[in-house]
Amino acid sequence: MSKDRTKKKSSQTQTVKGTLDIAKSGMGYVIAEGFEKDILIRPNDFGRAFHGDTVRVQVNKDIVRGRRIEGKITDVAERKQTEFIGNIQLSKSFAFFIPDGSKEMPDFFIPPHKLNEAVDGDRVLVKLVKWDKGDRKPEGEVVSVIKAEDINDFAMKEIIINSGFSLQFSEAAINDANHLMPTITREETKKRRDCRDILTFTIDPVDAKDFDDAISIRNLDNGNYEIGVHIADVSHFVKPGTELDKAAYERATSVYLPDRVNPMLPEKISNELCSLRPHEDKYTFSVIYQISNRAEIKHTWIGRTLIHSNHRFSYEEVQEIIENKEGLHHKPILLLNDLAQKFRKERFKKGAINFSSTEVRFQLDETGKPVGIIVKESKEAHKLIEEFMLLANKSVAEYVSKIKVNKEPIPFPYRIHDTPDEEKLKPFVAFAKKFGYTFDMQDQAAIASSFNKMLKEVQGKPEQHVLEQLGIRTMAKAIYTPENIGHYGLGFENYCHFTSPIRRYPDILAHRILQECLDKNLKLDKKWKRNANIAVNGNVKQWKLSVQVINTNR
Predict the structure, then answer these.
(1) Among 70, 243, 390, 490, which lies 20 to 30 A Cα-Cα from 116?
(2) Do 158 and 186 share a structural domain?
(3) pLDDT score of 62
């Protein structure tokens, strides 16, 4: 009888993996696959977990409170963050660190030799050193003391830390980067298409330091134009399995704040080796088109290249050239703008939705204090670059989508955007109708057309911004996935991120897989579908075939 009871009890107990969310009340909730509701975790059952950590939870389906299953954290699979801001409390023989924040956290024990000259009451940045089983409290070390004059600096750092990003790269990652050489070798040049004699330039924000895309243009004898979209070849330098690759994988994206960038890659990579700076030979991964003057794409070539940028433009400089029809390289710029406008018009004709969001930038004084706001308007210069980047992303995804192994599509980080959810759309349609805007709900194409009609008619009216923002919120979130269903908002059947490998890890993955396709050297894990773990809410997980992605809302 006792054996039967044991079997019954164990059958109701299981261990699952999920993310710990600690509410202001102090109660914890774990979001785990296969459970309709979050698993309730009481504070005494947090174990050694912090808010945001990926944890393993033991649940007993017999223990239910208000239809919610309770659980107990048994292990921390992955830390969301390891650096924290708070205050030091000192006594004669020991020190404790009291973390900031509304989320429940234990105090850290700080050994005297790891105080880094901090004194009682100091505000400090502390790094988690260890929290072994059996230890009552985690152990930390003071990374730095926050002084009053550094308060704005640490306010920015606190945002980065609380979002789970590291402020510094590991010594191993920095060493990897420092050992990389900018030399253009003869051996590598033979493997690439040499585009150094073609007019090439970059167009970026005036304060940009990492230039990861460039455009080249020249006339062909057949009357068409050869236009190249050249992207920094980050995958040439960042090899799978290196400490540098691991650091980029953990960060997954560069983080942009009002006064700084927390980069995905060390500056040696992002601002030197891979940045397409003018008057320097650079390795690139390119999509090169033959295009007619009617914006008809006659031929597409994809592969690794070598370029030499002739000039670095800001958006403002290019906009002035477009408006005044004169200036340095004004003829090719005007031609590119004309083609971009034709591509844009064709996109909307095929069902793309013309959502545009207002970008706000802060003006800061010399201490980093905000003193004003600048609202940036997207002009033709921005749209010129946008259209050619969209075209390159689309072309790469189209090429990869046609490749099959054993009649199966290869795993690839497509950027997909699902159709709107009807239940979310209905209240928005009713709200828009109050302002006189009607929607045709017959099918997805009709909905896209209705959105574009509304977005055009609402321009300059008092309700413009509220309808634009609410309209965006009715849309599904764009995500990365190997299951390609197309991009509804852009009106593309195939789409990926290829054009920003300096600041997005999925783009590096796209480059690596694309090169395997071009080399016809695909090493497909037959079990990749079963093992594919798609990232959720910005947490990076790994696919087989080294396909790793991060979901963002862009």
Answers:
(1) 243
(2) no
(3) 62
**Residue 388 within any structural domain of the chain:** no
Assigned token pair, 139: 């152990």
CA distance 52 to 125: 19
Tell me 267's DSSP state. Answer: H
Rounded-to-integer distance, Cα 412 and Cα 452, Å = 31
pLDDT at 61 (0 to 100) = 65
Q: Are 432 and 454 in contact (CB under 8 A)?
A: yes
- Tokens describing residue 471: 């309209």
Q: Tell me, yes or no, whether 258 and 365 share the same domain.
A: yes
Cβ neighbours around 152 below 10 Å, total = 16
- Tell me the pLDDT tens digit for each residue of 86-106: 999 988 778 999 998 778 889
Determine the Cα–Cα distance for residues 70 and 44; give it in Å rounded to an integer.
12
72 secondary structure, DSSP code:
E
Kind of pairing, strands 39-41 and 28-32? Answer: antiparallel
Compute the Cα dihedral for 417, 523, 499, 540 and give only its sign.
positive
What's the CA angle centered on 454, arms 453 and 458, to 5 degrees?
125
Residues 248 and 497: their CA atoms lie apart, in Å, by: 16
Looking at per-residue pLDDT, the higher value among 138 and 522 belongs to 138
Tell me what the mean pLDDT of segment 115-122 comes to. Answer: 90
Count the domains in the chain. 4
- Verify that 31 and 118 share a domain, yes or no: no
Residue 38: DSSP 8-state? P
Q: DSSP string covering 489-528, please?
A: TTTBSS-B--S-TTTBHHHHHHHHHHHHHHHT-----TTH
Shared domain check, 192 and 69: no
Q: Averaged over 241-258, what is the pLDDT?
A: 92
CATH number of the CATH domain containing 6: 2.40.50.140
Range of the domain at 414: 404-549
Q: Which two tokens stand for residue 350?
A: 């095929």
